[in-house]
Design goal:
heterodimer; A: 252 residues; alpha/beta; six-stranded mixed β-sheet; four-stranded antiparallel β-sheet; B: 277 residues; mainly alpha; MetI-like fold; 80% helix; 0% strand; disordered C terminus
């Protein structure tokens, strides 16, 4: 599988990526290839650099060394080129980050209209399809504060998906949700994975990793310690640190 | 009653607290009533409340003069308010720019103009601008001076409120493919305006009161006209009291409008919720 991704270039290529916050070395020599349609689940203790890794893939975090290529283009550093790349990479945040002064529908149609210049009618129809699919169509006229966390996150996923991204980044998308809301959001993510979306998922939900990941990436102290298919990673972790991490998160 | 935000800030008073509050209320009301009586008594004793002293405000000429003065005040306040909002917004955005020189230049400009009294700026527009061949009508001079000083204040208010918008809003806008300037324009600025509404209204009230400085350059606004009427009729106190009432009404209107706007902004959510259910 590794050789196959090298001959046909993957969607994401990270080479020797390094990142510092001040003197804190948050990403250390990250090498990672992600094939089209692949679902990568990034796990690791908090502070291990998972979120930062995720955020470098749409340039929300600028890297200090190494290179990132997305769809065979190197990551633009600024301006319109970077904005264009971001419009093709969807991102879902832990805190949803819906626009509080816009209705649910306007949140979803905002980017197609303002970024792509699509006609409002077309954007609305497409948005309603997505909201329908995610079971929040009846909330279209409401404002985000009036929705539950789970509903807000589903709207946020719709807002990202309407741009038809080639890559979806989920940065702890279920971590801020009440327990009973988590499943609905995870089901949508699993559906996306089955539909062939290329996804990078930073999560603490080991169940999702087992069910939907093609590969699990285990990080600690800014390094990728281990990359393996979920059966291997959960059944037979190679590194001591991964074993320790798993024994802690799977205890309950 | 217990739902008012002020009540929620304190423990509800007990029996002793309630007694103390009642006593304090009675004392304060008695003091205020006494003071009001004293003022009116002295004023009336010197003939201030006589029918004749107030009859000047029945004269059509005086009413016309006051009407024109009201128009002059409102006209200057409206244009200066509008320009100050526009220029203040531009300054706030410049101060949040990523370009260091733009940020520094805007910051320096704001620091200087913010600390200048409007009267000083007014003298500048009267005395210095003509020196450079720029001759504005007095209306323009007043509007310019008010715009310059108030725009800096407004820019500071807006800058602070935009900085208080959670970083996730900018990140979400950027990750949808908006460039940074457009993200600020479409997402951050509108939210900043909303958060800054009370402070902005306070600044606009301040600006409205600032039009009285037109007095110095013989711009015939309310205060200037009050003085004119007073000198002409010898009832200066009465005419000042009348324009005081006019200013009071103007500011009440301004705060009512702002409350109405704020309610509309939050009602939009409530209305949508009843529709969605």
């Amino acid at each position: 599988m590794e050789t196959a991704t090298q001959t046909a270039p993957g969607l994401v290529q990270m080479r020797k990526v390094n990142k510092y916050f001040g003197s804190h070395h948050v990403l250390r020599d990250i090498d990672l290839d992600i094939a089209r349609g692949e679902v990568i689940v990034v796990v690791g203790p908090s502070g291990s650099g998972k979120s930062t890794l995720c955020r470098t893939m749409n340039g929300l975090e600028r890297i200090d060394g190494g290179a990132i290529r997305i769809d065979d283009q190197s990551m633009p550093e600024e301006g319109r080129a970077l904005a264009k790349l971001r419009s093709e990479v969807g991102m879902v945040f832990q805190q949803f980050n819906l626009f509080p002064n816009k209705t649910v529908l306007d949140n979803v149609t905002f980017a197609p209209i303002k970024v792509r210049g699509r006609p409002a009618r077309e954007a609305r129809a497409k948005a309603m399809d997505l909201l329908e699919r995610f079971g929040v169509a009846n909330q279209a006229g409401k404002f985000p504060v009036q929705l539950s966390g789970g509903q807000q996150q589903r709207v946020a996923i719709a807002r990202a998906l309407i741009m038809e991204p080639k890559l979806m980044l989920f940065d702890e998308a279920t971590s801020a949700l009440d327990p009973e809301m988590v499943r609905g959001v995870l089901e949508i993510m699993q559906q996306l994975a089955r539909d062939g979306m290329t996804m990078v998922v930073v999560t603490h939900e080991m169940g999702f990793a087992k069910a939907s990941a093609d590969r699990v990436v285990f990080m600690d102290h800014g390094q990728i310690i281990e990359t393996a298919p979920p059966q291997t990673f959960f059944g037979n972790p190679q590194s001591e640190r991964a074993r320790k991490f798993l024994s802690e998160v799977l205890r309950d | 009653m217990t739902n008012s935000p002020i009540d929620r800030m304190f423990d509800p008073p007990g029996p002793r607290g309630r007694r103390a509050i009642r006593l304090a209320s009675i004392v304060v009301i008695a003091l205020l009533a006494g003071l009001a009586w004293l003022v009116l008594y002295r004023f009336g004793k010197s003939g201030g409340l006589d029918r004749q002293a107030w009859s000047i405000f029945e004269s059509p000429n005086v009413i016309k003069l006051l009407g024109r003065a009201l128009y002059a005040t409102v006209r200057a306040a409206l244009l200066a308010g509008l320009l100050a909002l526009v220029w203040g917004t531009a300054l706030a955005l410049m101060r949040l720019s990523r370009h260091r020189w733009l940020r520094t230049a805007a910051a320096a400009y704001v620091e200087v103009t913010r600390s200048l009294p409007t009267l000083l700026v007014l003298y500048f527009t009267i005395l210095v601008l003509p020196f450079y061949g720029l001759r504005l009508p007095i209306y323009g001079q007043l509007v310019l001076a008010l715009t310059i000083t108030n725009a800096s204040m407004i820019s500071e208010v807006l800058r602070a409120s935009m900085l208080s918008i959670p970083a996730g809003q900018l990140e979400a806008s950027l990750s949808l493919g908006l460039t940074r300037p457009r993200a600020f324009w479409y997402i951050i600025l509108p939210q900043g305006f909303r958060a800054a509404m009370p402070a902005l209204v306070a600044q606009l009230v301040y600006l409205l009161k600032g039009t009285t400085l037109g007095y110095v350059i013989s711009y015939e606004e309310l205060l200037y006209s009050a003085k004119l009427i007073g000198e002409y009729t010898n009832f200066i106190l009465q005419s000042i009291l009348v324009v005081t009432a006019v200013y009071l009404v103007l500011n009440i209107i301004l705060s009512r409008v702002s409350i109405w706007i704020e309610q509309r902004l939050s009602l939009r959510g409530a209305a949508a919720s009843s529709k969605g259910k």
